[in-house]
Amino acid sequence: MTTFDDRERAFESKFARDEEMAFRVTARRNRLVGQWAAALMKLTPEETDAYAKSVVQADFEEAGDEDVVRKLLGDLTAAGVDVDEAQVRQALTQETVEARRQLLKAE
């Protein structure tokens, strides 16, 4: 019975690590895409940092990426940047890859 208990603990531990990594990748991705959007809006370095943090916070409004897409698209449009939803989603995809790369490199 001990072998089964050990396997169960190992699976639970792996699941917890995977979930933590997924959360960290998403948070890093949101920061990176916030920096991308801030560059398009020509924000100062201080404004860029604050904006990137606000994008990370926006992700906590609802499950999925729709809240982040909505915020980015709204802010970019309000700033007069010619961007559409497809470009925002493409940036999310690209920054997801970069976020995962950065986190794996840091480990």
TrEMBL record:
Gene3D superfamilies with a match to the protein in the record: Domain of unknown function DUF1476
- InterPro entries per the UniProt record, alphabetical: ATPase_inh_sub_z, ATPase_inh_sub_z_sf
The protein's name in its UniProt record: Aldolase
Classification from the root reads: Bacteria, Pseudomonadati, Pseudomonadota, Alphaproteobacteria, Sphingomonadales
